[in-house]
Amino acid sequence: MRLFIAIFFSTSGLLFGQPGSVPAGTMVQAKLETSVKTASSEVGDAVVAVLTKPVLAADRIMVPGGSRLHGRVETIQHATRTNEGRVRLVFREIQLPDGKRVSTWMTNSFVAPSPKRTARYVVYMGLGAAAGAAIGGKTARVAGVIGGTLAGFVIAGNRNGSMLRDLTLKEGQQIRLQLGEDLSLAGE
Questions:
Q1: DSSP string, 58-96
Q2: Which of 63, 130, 138, 150 is the most buried (most CB within 10 A)?
Q3: Domain shared by 91 and 28, yes or no
């Protein structure tokens, strides 16, 4: 019973926010409630996330886990032949569990992972080298291997997989955000 009472008193103080501030640069963990896709999302689209861990400062919980973050897509870049899909999210408001709203500035940028091309290059270059060696015969085997390897390299680079990936941040996905300015909380 004592543990429950201690948690209740600790939590009741948190719902209204502890007076104080959280320094800029503090990392925050959240879970998306809104999906974001570089293939279809637009700048300005609303994004909502929920804190999965409380925000701490000076060994005190300043913002409880479960608080909702309200933000938007700040910048977006669709995938092209030369760039992966990228997005920058900015959250400008925290809604505490008691409904109180606090202004903030949390942000992070996300980039689609680069495709794993190594295996494709190895296969095509190996096949090209083997074909070049067979075509070159005994007299031009070295030249055939070199030429076939180069041909395989070019073919692997021009395969339709050369389009880089779009980014999808799924609903429920964990993300890390960084406070871009001090977060000041006034006591009740």
A1: TTEEEE-TT-EEEEEEEEEE---SS---EEEEEEEEEE-
A2: 63
A3: yes
Q: List, for residues 121-180, the tens digit of each pLDDT value.
A: 677 667 767 776 777 777 777 776 777 677 767 766 666 555 578 889 999 999 999 999
Q: Are residues 106 and 29 in the same domain?
A: yes
Closest by alpha carbon to 182, among 45, 21, 48, 69? Answer: 21
Rounded Cα–Cα distance for residues 59 and 78 (Å): 41
Q: Give the 3-state secondary structure of residue 22.
A: strand
Structure tokens at 170: 């799924």
Tell me the residue range of the domain where 132 lies: 118-161
Asked whether residue 19 falls in the same domain as residue 83, the answer is: yes
